[in-house]
Amino acid sequence: MEQETVSKNFIEQMIDQDLAEGVYENVCTRFPPEPNGYLHIGHAKSILLNYGIARKYNGTFNMRFDDTNPTKERVEFVESIKEDIQWLGADWGDRLYFASDYFEKMYEAAVSLIKKGKAYVCDLSADEIRAYRGTLTEPGKESPYRDRSVEENLRLFEAMKNGQVADGEKVLRAKIDMASSNMNMRDPVLYRVAHMNHHNTGDDWCIYPMYDFAHPLEDAFEGVTHSICTLEFEDHRPLYDWVVREVGFAHPPRQIEFAKLYLTNVVTGKRYIKKLVEEGIVDGWDDPRLVSIAALRRRGFTPESIRMFIELCGVSKAQSSVDYAMLEYCLREDLKLKSERMMAVLDPIKLIIDNYPEGQTEELEVANNLENEALGSRTVTFGRELYIEREDFMEVPPRKYFRLFPGNEVRLMQAYFVRCESFVKDENGRVTEVHCTYDPETKCGSGFTGRKVKGTIHWVAAKDAVQAEVRLYENIVDEEKGVYNEDGSLNINPDSLTVKQAYLEPALAQAEPYDSFQFVRNGYYCVDAKDSREGRPVFNRIVSLKSSFKLPKA
Ligand code: ATP
Ligand code: MG
Q1: With a 6 A CB cut-off, is 42 part of the ligand 1 pocket?
Q2: Is residue 35 lining ligand 1, measured as CB closer than 6 Å?
Q3: Which ligand is nearest to the CA of 315?
Q4: For residue 6, pLDDT beyond 80
Q5: CA–centroid distance, residue 45 to ligand 1 (Å)
Q6: Residue 283 and residue 497: Cα distance in Å, rounded?
Q7: Angle, CA of 491, 495 and 496, to the nearest 5°
């Protein structure tokens, strides 16, 4: 017999049991976003979980917009959500649905409840309904309209539908139990009147179903078997079950809850992000410092890295926060072998090789990724004048500093050994040039086996280097102080963006939006899709090379 090697999460165990007991014959899951904002990394968890389960069980995956509340929904969000989900690799095929397409069927379902004596039209105001609801310790009070006849309810509900009732004047409520220990079961509102234009159905409807009524129906209409949602809906499950049972579905879906994904020191709340956007602190919902899917994509995260991250996070019932560094770890793992390793100097100073013939250059053959031969090689120009990183030279080196300082010899990556002979400062005492001599015998790959050097530094030739804007990001909130102030405002990190004018290898000028590279000794960088121009890329640092992050033991 084949050994079970992969451990299953609790949702899969429940599904296995349902299939074994014959509750369902196949598996159908869905992702049901409300098109009222952009998706973020938390949604990615829900998307990949639902899609992954459908795949694993050879089932189906539905993409459904839960667009039953016209107040906050916009077409712009429908498009961005589709783009994000496609990018993540969740393929819904031809199974794209809109909850608003079911308004007629939902209305019929409500009518059927009225006919069964399970729903009634109530004239109490919103405030009165709240007051009648009772508290966690006290039972609620029944509405004086609770015992209306079926005929009267049918007539009134139709009047609501036909636009003869003003907003807030009447609602349709389920008739369940005002004394239930679960507040959600105390005659919840199923339909409200709202004379509003809907992005899909226009002015066809002036009554709209409430989430707790609409959602189970949407699932049931589509033949969803496992309706996977987050923990805050656990208390709503009895109502979910009530709706699908009373409306009379033969194979009602089953709701299963899991814990939301939270990242430490990261802002995901729509309210907060909206504020950051409106106050101009960030450059839109896709600012690379945010964790919306669009922002992560723009920053340079890959779908593979996000899938790996979600996989590592696992699925559980316990609320917890995951370190952002784990997401960065996944990105490094993904790009390590995939990306070309290029030389880029972010904080340049000039290095001049005094004994290298003036006017001469040579082309050096350089591997694109030493760990992955398949990425091939390229040539880089070497010459008398180069740029190196300012921090790779020190006038007075501290202990264990093996890079350039007067008298010291280092290797120029992929090229020659150079010895620092002198340097030039400007009137402010700032170093402007480092002068060296090179040893032609030490050419990389020449088989030179003489003396050794301890430091290797990268460089680009001044002759053909291209200048480009490079953006370094830090967390948008101040990690030391915590995400929120006492008054609930955000603790903004003033240094979350640093812009550099860097010198790059000329090949990088041709990079296309979303292309990513390793800048050797530094980090992973991606071409910004919004601000780059043909031949003039802008680079975003996705993540630096080094980290103290260790993968938690399973
Ligand atoms: P809102 O705060 O406006 O309700 P939302 O983030 O819940 O926003 P929805 O469009 O309702 O947005 O979410 C779609 C799905 O994504 C839901 O099934 C929800 O449970 C799930 N989801 C939302 N946030 C997370 C998260 N942090 N982790 C995992 N799943 C999430
Ligand atoms: Mg929600």
Answers
A1: yes
A2: no
A3: 1
A4: no
A5: 10
A6: 11
A7: 75
Report how far residue 8's alpha carbon sits from residue 161's, in angstroms, rounded to the nearest whole number.
Answer: 47
Please provide residue 472's backbone torsions phi and psi, each rounded to the nearest 5 degrees. -105, 130
Q: Does residue 130 surpass a pLDDT of 90?
A: yes
**% of the chain beyond a pLDDT of 90:** 86
C-alpha 407, offset from chain centre: 49
The pLDDT of 94-110, averaged and rounded, is 98
pLDDT digits (tens, 9 = 90+) for 457-512: 999 999 999 999 999 999 998 877 777 888 878 888 999 999 999 999 999 999 99
Residues 6+ apart with CB under 8 A from 400: none
| Cα–Cα distance measured from residue 271 to residue 255, given in angstroms and rounded to the nearest whole number | 28
Pure H helices in 456-521: none
Residue 2 reports pLDDT greater than 80: no
The tally of CA atoms less than 13 A away on the side-chain side of residue 93 is: 9
Give the distance (Å) from ligand 2 centre to CA of residue 32: 9
Of the residues 36, 46, 81, which should be mutated to test ligand 1's pocket, given the most ligand atoms within 8 Å of the CB? 46
38 CA → ligand 1 middle, Å: 11
Separation CA 350–CA 388 (nearest Å)? 6
pTM for the model stands at 0.93
| pLDDT tens-digit readout, 297-356 | 999 999 999 999 999 999 999 988 999 999 999 999 999 999 999 999 999 999 999 999
The answer to whether 363 and 380 have CB atoms below 8 angstroms apart is yes
Angstrom distances, CA of residue 157 to CA of 75, 191, 218: 30, 9, 21
Range in 73-82, 101-110, 149-158, 230-239 the model is least confident about: 73-82
| CB half-sphere exposure, 376, CA atoms < 13 A | 2
Q: What is the rounded distance in angstroms from the CA atom of residue 400 to the CA atom of residue 409? A: 14
Distances in whole angstroms, Cα of residue 149 to Cα of each of 161, 251, 442: 18, 30, 98
Q: Is 121 helix (H, G, I), strand (E, B) or coil?
A: strand
pLDDT at 551 over 80: no
Confirm or reject: Cβ of 260 under 6 Å from ligand 1: yes
Q: What is the mean pLDDT of residues 128-135?
A: 97
Q: Please, which residues bridge with residue 357 across strands?
A: none
Q: In whole angstroms, what is the distance from residue 480 CA to residue 420 CA?
A: 40
The band of 274, judged by pLDDT with boundaries at 50, 70 and 90, is confident
- Distance of alpha carbon 196 from the chain centroid: 32
- Of 165, 202, 171, 176, which is closest to residue 189 (Cα–Cα)? 171
Give the C-alpha separation, 206 to 193, whole Å: 6
Average pLDDT over residues 178-202: 96
Question: Considering the chain, what is the average pLDDT of its residues?
Answer: 95
Enter the tokens of residue 418. 């150079």
- CA neighbor of 347 nearest in space, from 414, 431, 464: 431
